[in-house]
Amino acid sequence: MKNSEDRKVSFIDIEADKWLEENRSPKHLCSMRFRADYVVDLMGKKIGDCISIDEATVEITQLGKRCFEECEFLKESKVPCPLASGVAFAKMKSV
Q1: Is 0.70 topped by the overall pTM?
Q2: In DSSP terms, which residues pair with 89 in a beta bridge?
Q3: 61-79 pLDDT per residue, tens
Q4: Contact status, residue 27 vs residue 75, Cβ threshold 8 Å
Q5: What is the longest distance spanned by two Cα atoms in the chain?
Q6: Of 4, 43, 58, 82, which residue is most buried, by most CB within 10 angstroms?
Q7: Phi/psi at 23 (nearest 5 deg)?
Q8: Which positions ≥6 away from 89 have C-beta within 8 Å?
Q9: 93: helix, coil or strand?
Q10: What would the mean pLDDT of 25-35 be, rounded to a whole number?
């Protein structure tokens, strides 16, 4: 796992955020536990890419997030959770 310095800022993709809002339920643990700092379009982003936020620049350090083993969605679903790939973490690059 990345250290906390590499995960200072969190992002959720627009479509993953929409799914999360539509599926908010205790059955979906991430819908109850995860809150991103920003909603952005992550399409095509990769580790090392930079995103500007106001006057700051952050560098993506991680794409996706781990799933909670106790998540009912993970146990029951035949499709991957959108948060497994629809989340990014970043560290401050410049202010």
Answers
A1: yes
A2: 10, 62
A3: 999 888 777 777 777 877 7
A4: no
A5: 43
A6: 58
A7: -120, 25
A8: 2, 6, 7, 8, 9, 10, 11, 60, 61, 62, 65
A9: strand
A10: 73
